[in-house]
Structure to design on (359 residues):
């Protein structure tokens, strides 16, 4: 099998998988965007591989494969940073919610106590 | 001293402090009968909450362990919601001597300070002075905070503190989370708070273990330093949520 064909199949599969995840509501648009852009780019380069070679040469990479590894590495660093941001946001919201719940629970208990007395 | 016209809340953060918390709450209530004691049970796995309730404290139980900063902040949020004039933070492990309570809120009652830090190093008054390595670490923060803000606090890791209404409002919005004591001083100073330090005597822990263990001192120092430096570059007016 041709490496060119393998690249196209893999990138299209990932792209379709992301779309399917969105369709089945396992992935919201906000988080799917990054993956769609990355896999869309992968399809583009897999189909028009000469574009990839040209870009690699332009940027001064000796081998196109080095360029692919480098680009992938950059993408993953960026994606994990993005995920860390989301994680922090969730963490903060979680903390705020826990504090609110604790205070509400306390107030509810106090109210119940008051009702019993009356 | 006339404290009757001021609403005072004692915030006691506690994580797995059964064996200590009951005594702490009782001591506070005996020595300062006019104040409300709010224990923040930070997701304890033992009977901390029951023990505190039995001793006569109000208990807010967080659904899981959030860490000391978020626990104390919950206390500020309570104080803010119910319009308390003064909040005092006392650790639930029995290290802080509640007999200093009146002394520590005095500068706030006289409106000479927004925030009072109880310090065990201000005078050599005795009591628990911490281990050597801890003191080296604490000294480092004294200089770091002094360098960054120009404020000299001799015991920046002390969790025995009093705050006025202004600080309650500030800290209920934003309070540092992980190891908050040194960073809170920086936050307060940046908000233009008047910070006063008073000597107190601390005791060694009665049961359980400190949240800052001996071998973790260095890690603690690095982490808090980074947290403080990151705080300095943070954008202003961004709430905690």
């Amino acid at each position: 099998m041709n490496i060119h064909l393998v690249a196209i199949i893999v990138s299209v599969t990932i792209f379709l998988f992301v779309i399917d995840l969105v369709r089945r509501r396992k992935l919201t648009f906000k988080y799917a965007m990054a993956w769609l852009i990355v896999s869309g780019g992968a399809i583009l380069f897999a189909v028009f591989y000469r574009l990839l070679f040209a870009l690699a040469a332009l940027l001064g990479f000796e081998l196109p494969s080095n360029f692919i590894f480098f680009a992938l590495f950059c993408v993953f660093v960026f994606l994990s940073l993005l995920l860390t941001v989301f994680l922090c946001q969730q963490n903060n919201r979680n903390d705020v919610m826990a504090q609110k719940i604790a205070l509400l629970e306390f107030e509810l208990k106090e109210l119940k106590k008051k009702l019993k007395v009356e | 001293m006339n404290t009757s016209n001021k609403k005072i809340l004692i915030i006691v953060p506690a994580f797995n402090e059964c064996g200590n918390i009951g005594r702490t709450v009782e001591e506070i209530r005996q020595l300062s009968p006019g104040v409300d004691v709010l224990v923040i049970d930070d997701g304890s796995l033992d009977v901390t909450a029951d023990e505190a309730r039995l001793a006569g404290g109000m208990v807010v139980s967080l659904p899981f362990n959030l860490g000391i900063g978020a626990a104390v902040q919950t206390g500020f949020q309570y104080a803010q919601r119910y319009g308390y004039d003064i909040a005092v933070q006392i650790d639930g492990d029995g290290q802080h001597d509640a007999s200093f309570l009146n002394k520590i809120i005095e500068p706030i009652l006289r409106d000479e300070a927004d925030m009072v830090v109880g310090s065990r190093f201000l005078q050599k008054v005795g009591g628990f002075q911490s281990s050597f390595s801890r003191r080296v670490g604490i000294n480092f923060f004294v200089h770091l905070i002094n360098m960054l803000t120009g404020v000299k606090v001799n015991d920046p890791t002390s969790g025995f503190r009093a705050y006025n209404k202004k600080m309650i409002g500030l800290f209920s919005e934003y309070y540092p989370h992980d190891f908050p004591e040194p960073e809170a001083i920086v936050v307060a100073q940046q908000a233009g708070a008047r910070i006063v330090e008073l000597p107190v005597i601390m005791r060694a822990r009665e049961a359980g273990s400190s949240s800052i263990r001996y071998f973790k001192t260095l890690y603690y120092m690095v982490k808090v330093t980074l947290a403080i430096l990151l705080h300095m570059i943070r954008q202003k007016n961004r709430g905690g949520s």
In short: Chain A touches chain B at residues 92-93, 95-96, 98-99, 101-103, 105-106 (CB under 8 Å). The helical segments of chain A are 3-23, 29-47, 49-59, 64-117.
